[in-house]
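Query form — protein Exopolysaccharide biosynthesis WecB/TagA/CpsF family protein

QUESTION: What is the three-dimensional structure of this chain?
INPUT:
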Amino acid sequence: MNHISHIKSAAVSRRAILGLDVSCFGYGDALAFANQMASLPLGQTIISFLNANNANIMYADAEYRDILTRQMILPDGIGVDIASTFVYGDKFPANLNGTDFVPALLTYMDRPKRIGLIGGLPEVAAKAAANFKRHAPWHEFIVVSDGYFEETDSVNVAERMDALKLDVLMVGLGSPKQEKWVDTYVRPHHARLVLCVGALFDFVANAVPRAPHFLRRMRLEWLFRLLIEPKRMWRRYIIGNPLFIARSLRQAFVVRVLGKPYAHGENLVV
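ANSWER: The structure tokens for Exopolysaccharide biosynthesis WecB/TagA/CpsF family protein are given below.
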């Protein structure tokens, strides 16, 4: 799929995390960039967020990795900050996790936009749209589809977008499904700005509780999620986090000790 995109012309530095370029925006610059992309008359920018979990998925899934190279990637969470510090000696300028960044962007965009939602249970999608409307009442929020459609219905969902004339599309199907779905079915005429938002609708609809503010400030929201959903989250955090750190340490060794460019490949040790 060939997106008309302004990503490559963006004047922003990037850091490679496990071989994937991640943009180094400050918070205000990221908001300004996304707002500009949503306001352009032509083209399309797709924004995804890289955290330790989907970095691990990307490591083993070549198709997913290839898709992410066609999107603008923002750093999400303490894991990628640790990886950045290992390799580059410093964390990213800002933690641009989608759960906080997207609501902030909706407020930042002061001109009314038509914003579509795809994802979540039917009642979650509807409640998220209503809560977004309370958060930023000058925008129009449209539930294009919940997230419980079959792959065979994807064309119908995409056709539904054809007549909506959206400015922004938020897709919350979870990684890597959402990024793959967007790459396959979303075209530039569907929306200028596409945001792959993961579990954002669940949080906005209050279907899943967020961590207390003090844990968020300490960058420990992942620990809160593990405590409230241990059966679902233990593999992601107990196994996934150390695995991501090990892979990041190997990248740091290759780049900083051996002085070689890091190249992702099947022959890597971890």
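ADDITIONAL NOTE: The chain has a mean pLDDT of 92.
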